[in-house]
Fold these 3 entries.
Entry 1:
Amino acid sequence: MFFKQISRTIALPLSLIFNQVMPVAYVPPDWKMAVMTTVYKTGASYDCCNYSPISVTCVISKLFERVVANKVRDHLISNNMLHPAQHGFMNGRSTCTNLLESANDWTFYLQDKHQVVIVYIDFRKAFDVVSHKKLFTVLHSYGIRGNLFTCRLCIFSQGVHIVLRLVPSCQIFLL
């Protein structure tokens, strides 16, 4: 909220910093530091499975990561590398627009007396288990190279995590 209130004041200094960081492909260590904590979901409070881990990271780092992610997305769009049905991580599209588009397609198929088979796959934790090495190999094969690639790699590598608060019955791990 604070950064939104001062966005006009800090836009130029941040752009200068980001423009200095990008050519050398160096991300300051403080930008990669995260404070880890847990948030209670539901169920028995003594069960570790009923807590979600969250990390609080530097706001400037999040802004820089958004700039880099936008550059990657723009590259993929301008080179027609994304399928037209892609909804995730696209401006103006979401899981809601995807569901509406799918429901519309299903309705047309049913009206034309076709069979419709719908399979739901839960990808909820899919990103948590993606191999970053494989992800960067794919990005490289899609033409994401140079400083943009190195910055993206640097953002995801060698993060420093500090555990702040955990459920008493859980073990504490420093990553």
Note: The two ends are 29 Å apart (CA to CA).
Entry 2:
Amino acid sequence: MRLFGLLVFLSGVGCSKSNPSDRTDAGDSGVVDTERTDSAGGDADTDTDTDSDTDSDSDTDTDGGEDLDAQWYLPFNEVTLGGTHNSYEAERGSIESQLNVGVRCLELDVHDNDYASVGDYQLGHDRPGDAVATDENGVGVELSGWLELIQKWSKTHPKHAPITVVIDLKDNLTDNSSSALGNLGALNVLLDEQFGSRLFRPEEVRYGWPQLLDMRDRILVQFSGDSTSRARYLRDPGEHPAVAMNDKGQVIEVHDSGTGSLWYWTGQMESDGHVTWHHHGRYDSGMDPAVALDDDGWIVEVHKSESKDNLWAHAAYLNPDYTVSWGPSQKFDDAGVEPSVAFVGDGVLHEIHRVSGNVAQRRRLEIEIDRADFRLLFGDETNTNTSRYVETIATSSAGTVEVKRGSTESSEPSDTLLYRTDQQSFERIRYEQLAFVDFQPGNAEEILGGGIFFYNTRSGTMSDVDAWRDAGWVVRLWGFSEGDVDVSLNQPNCPATDEPKASWYAQYLEEVGAPE
């Protein structure tokens, strides 16, 4: 793997670090899991170098009178904590028993099979339910039950060292066209519901990792596994973005994929000027969309056919949870290109487009919304000298938001969807970053951008761990075995073993001074 230069993080996540030089260990193949020799998979983690000058057995008094080991005063990325690989399997013991003996890095393999009917993700190695210790843990295979086990233990064991929950995505969540079907937005909602304020977010590393002491009782989530899902959590590519915002600061962005599909984002302009993007989904086929949004949440979207100069439109409604209810696609009577649309009154809009074959000629169509049937009522279409509406900028009493495709750093592809407001410069349009995303051997360079802190590699690569720790990353080594023990090197922050009950592992954790 070629050497990457110094990485500067987007969105003010200012913990910069370099990447170690070329490595020869096995690579991650995306959806395929390489964590077992008989099947596919992959996870990851990262960290900086250990503190070789401090005796981990020595005690330091805090202002509160606590007698704590020196490890508690190190940054999170300089500490080794106990961890397990495939933590849901019976051989590891129950989640509660693992946490009770000091495991602070857990892994859950997650599938999206039948999400629409189940209403949840499901655990399993090769398939939902595979090797999942439901009886030992008193829960089913649904992910929500396992996350609840972790948060309940956390609440009843105050002052514990931070817990990292590695969610190994066994499926590509980006082929789910909405949160109702289990896309990454649905996973974000679940994390927020289960962990709430205990969730330690990537934005909290903006100025570097805090001391372990300051992260007690917190839970970190690390996305691993499917490389496409990890990449799309960090950035969204697209073409021809357009945006609308109402006086409440509610925002909708629409764009095409460049290959014939239409997608949307919904969000909320916050008081500090940034937009919290809540939901993302596919709504139709076509290209070059435009959109309008009123204060009641009604949406009108217009786009061109992907193959002909026909214009189509939708009525839609922005729900209180920022999901969108879409009406049917309706075809204009006349051909046209480059649509634009805006509200000009209560439930009344003007759509202005160019005439197919004569782009100097513009036509205007009056549209009304039939709110009862989620349909549009088209009036007469007339020639006009009025300019097209600017579809990439929206202004309301809440402020101004602009969208474009481009890049903000050297490692960022030029088709990245970006936005800025009157209070901030361009940032990525993407899911609210509740989870960390790991980088793995063989991953595409684009995953490096947008706030990466974790490196994930497999057993047998301790020299690789040593290099990434030196470069300042948090490192997880899965399948950690007795043969990986070499205390002369930087240790993985999460030595995720298959043998947490083995005496050698307990001795190893004691030797490296792993806090609990």
Note: Residues 110 and 426 are 33 Å apart (CA to CA).
Entry 3:
Amino acid sequence: MAKEAVLKHGISIRLACECMSVSQTCFRYQPILSDENAEIADWLVRLTANQRNWGFGLCFLFLRNVKGFVWNHKRVYRIYRELELNLRIKPKKRIVRERPEPLAAPQTMNECWSMDFMHDQLEDGRSYRLFNVIDDFNREGLAIEVDFSLPSERVIRALEQIIEWRGEPVAVIVVSANEDPMVIRRALDHGAAGFIPKSADLAELTEALTAVLDCRDWVPQRLLRAVAEADSEDPDQQLAERIATLTPQQFRVLEMVADGALNKQIGDELNIQLRTVKAHMSEIFAKLGVRNRTQAGIAFRRLELVQPSVAARQAVMSEHGDEV
């Protein structure tokens, strides 16, 4: 309007600006940015074409810090919006969760038991463990074993007491993180109806429980062949051969470990230094293929179930030319 007043009515620029409340600088301004706007648009189009995952922020930082342009960010963003280069915000995909099929419920007592371990800490920081057994039919607690340590012998004893009182369950399913085919084979040979690894998904878990409740044995498909091949192997014979490689002193140390003796007690009983006991323990672990004292003790006790300890000791001593 100020320019129109100057051109049509011939008044001065100063008077026109005062009447319209416009500064003379604004009146005399001539836009010279059309070429630069085209250059900005060209740069933005090329950047977004080459770098499809770049948004406005990365494009502007590249132009300012890498190319050295001093264009205002509001100006660049205005052109960026006009070109409709905004990245589309992808909506989050909804995860379709299938409703799990209800598990088959036992119809009578002693049809299915559930066992689990729990642990907690006392006020003084000591940890204790609980071994729980319940009947899935009426949720009756059959046994609760509580102690600071629950070795396998305690678990076996608790199960034997329940079986003597209630009788054996219809089916037993083993749930374990150990997927060794030999362990699975031994569990099935001892009467387990199924073996469920802890890595099994919901579909495998449902399939296993359905098969066992239908009086069918179940083993994961991916382990069937390995379990079948492990059928002909005798783990007790392999264990006996490994124990036969122990020296007489190492056998005495292993026997005391199986009885729960500490390293210091073993050293005092055999009249040897503590470092010698530790060296024997390392050799025993290597020869038996175990990683700790518990596994070594379990391996020794498992062999004792097959043959008496005296006979085992005689076999070891005869192997090394010694007498009991």
Note: The radius of gyration is 40 Å.
